[in-house]
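Recall that a protein's primary structure is simply its ordered list of amino acids. Everything else, from secondary elements to tertiary packing, is in principle encoded there. The following example makes that idea concrete.
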Amino acid sequence: MDTDRSASPGARLAWLDLLRGIAAMVVALHHATYYYTPRWRAGLVDWFDPGLYGVLVFFLVSGYIIPASLERHGQVRRFWISRVLRIYPLLTTACAITLLPYLLGVRGLRAGLEAYRPATAVLAHLTMLQDVLAVPNVINVLWTLSYEMLFYLLVVALFVTRTHRLSAPIAVTLATAAVLVGGLLPMAALSRTVGIGPVVALTAVVMVTAIVAAVSARPSVRVAGGVLGGVLALALVCVNGRIGPWQSLIILAVMFTGTALYRAEHRQIRRRTAVLSAAVVPACAVLAGAWHAQVSMPPAQADAFAVYWAGSLLLAAVTFAAGWAVRRRRIPRWLTGLGAISFSLYLLHPVLLMLSDQFGGTPDHDDAFRLAVFVAVLIAVSALTYRYVEVPFQRLGRRIGRRAAPAARRPADGVAAAPLAAPAADNVSP
C-alpha cells in the first residue's frame, strides 16, 4: 500500500512511483467522493470500483518489488527490520489519531470495534492480520495491509525453502484454486469455532515464532520458521478471512503475478512463462467473480458485481502494463512525488475524512470546492508525515539492517541474492 525516498535517486524505480501515486489518489478520491460529490460518484461505479482498482494496482506493484527487496540482500533478518520500520511508525500514528475521538467520548469506532476486548483488538492490529482474524479494521483501508503481511510470510517461506522462483506456477495455482474451490471454503471458520480472542492470541504467537525462527542462523530452524509462517498465511486465507476465500486467493495470485513479471523482466524465468501466468490469472479472476457472485448474491446484484469486478481488475492490469511500458522514460517529478508519499496518502485520507465529518459535517449536495480543499490538505499533511515520520524510520531501518548484515550475509541466512538488472527500492503497497 511508497518507495524509500531517502534512498539515492539512482536507486529509484520511477514508474512504480507513478503507479503508486495514481493508485493512492484514486483510492482517496473514491472515499472522498462519498462525502463531497456523491451524485457525481454514483454515475461512475456502475462498471468500475475506483477503490478496488486502486488496491489491485498496489497489489501488482507490491508483488513486483517486495520479493526483489528480500532477494536483493539475501537476508531475511534485514527484510523484516525494513518492513517493521517502514510500516508501523505511520500505521501507529494513523491509528492513534483515529482512536483519539473515541477515547475522548466524541464518537464510536468503525464497524463496532469497541465491542471487542481492547487486548484482542490491539493484538490483532499489531499482527496486521486483523482482516483475516475476524476483527474489524480500526481504519477501513487497513484490510489491504493484512494481505501485505500474508504475502510477506509467503515470500519468506518460498525464499528460505529455495522455491522463490516458482512465482508463475504459484500465481496460476492460486487463481485456479479460487475458481474451483474458492466458493467451497468457509469464512471466519476458525474464529467462529474457537473464538476470536484465542485465534488472535495463537496467531500472534505463531507469527512471532515463525519470524524469529526464519532469521535464525541454523538452516533447519530457518526453514521451519519460514514454512510455519507460510502455513499460517494459507490457513488464514483459506478458512478465516472476512471476504470470500476466492477473493483472498485472487489477491495473492495477483501479487505473485507481479512477481512473475519481475522475474521475467530480469531473466530469472522465461518470458512466456510469465506471460502465460499474466493471462491465466486475470481470466480466472474474472471467471471466479462471475461464478461465485451468482452463487452467493441475488441475480441483479451478482450481475452488477461481476461487471465492476471485471472492469476494475482489467483496468488495473492495463494500468500496470502502461506503467511498465514507460519504465525507461522520464517521469515528471510531481508524479513520482505523489508516489513517494503514497503510503501517507493511503493511510491518512480516511483519518482526515473522519475529522472533516466531525468538525465540518457532510454536505447535502455535491461540493467540488470542499473536495478540492480536502485533496490539497491531504497532500500537504502526507508530505509532512512522510518527511517527519516515514523518512526518519526508513533511515533507522537501514542503519539497523546494516549492523545486522555482517552476521546475516553468510549463506546460512538465506539464499544468495539474484543479480538485478536495475536496483530495487524497498517498497510496500498499502
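Residues 347 and 359 are 20 Å apart (CA to CA). The radius of gyration is 21 Å.
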